[in-house]
Amino acid sequence: MFELFKRVKTVVNSEVNSLIDKAEDPIKMVEQYLREMGSDIQEAEKATAKMMAEEKLLKMKWEEAESMVMKREEQAVQALQDQNEDLAKRALEDKIKIQEEAEQLQSLYLDASKTATDLKLKLTEMKSEYRDMELKKASLKSRAQSAKARTNINRSMSSHNSEGSKQGFKRMEEKVLRYEAEAETSEDLNASSRTLDDELTQMSTKTKMDEELERLKEKIAQQTKATNE
Hints:
Helix content: over 70%
Family: Belongs to the PspA/Vipp/IM30 family.
Shape: rod-shaped
Mean pLDDT: 79
Radius of gyration: 56 Å
Number of domains: 2
Largest sheet: none
Pfam families: PspA_IM30 (PF04012)
Protein name: PspA/IM30 family protein
Low-confidence stretches: none
Region (Disordered): 136-229
Structural class: mainly alpha
Strand content: under 5%
Number of strands: 0
Order of helices and strands: HHHHH
Number of helices: 5
C-alpha cells in the first residue's frame, strides 16, 4: 500500500522537463496518483477502524476475565469460611482456568492495541502526504505549463528565419526614409516657389508705387511753375 508514496514522491521531485520528454502527461499522472492514494486511504481507514473495534472488544473481554478471577477468589474464600472445601477447590480450579484465559486476552489486547496505533500513525502519514500532493499539484501544473510554453517558443524561434525578417524590416525602414526625404524635398520646392512669387509680386507693387510717386512729383512741379508765372 505504502509503495504508492515512493511513486508519488518520485514524480513530484523529478524535473518537469524530464517528464515532458516522456509520453506521459505529468498533471494527469499526478491526478491519477491522487485518486489511487485516496482509494488507499479509504481502505486504510476501514482497516484501522476494524482493528480499533477489535482492540476495544479484547480489552472488554480481558477486563471481564480479570473481574471473574477476583470473583472466584472471593468465592473460594467464602466457601472455606463455610467449611466447604470441595466448593472452594472447584472455585479455585475455575479461577485458574479463567486466569489463563485472561492472560491470553491481555496478550491479544496488547498486540491489537499496538497494531491499531501503528495503523493510525500510518493513516495520519498517508493523509498528510495526500494533502502535500494536493498543494504541490497546483505548483507542478504551473511549472509544466511554463516549461511547455518555453519549449514552444524556443522551437518557434529556432524554426523561424529571424535574419530574413531583420533584412525585410531594414528594407521597409529604408523605404520609409526615402518617402520622408521625398516629402521634405517637395516641401522645400514649394517653399522656394512661394518665395519667388512673393518677390515678383513685391517688385510689381514697387514699380506701380514708383510710377505714382513720379506722377505726383510732376504734378507738384507743374503747379509750382504755374504759380510762379
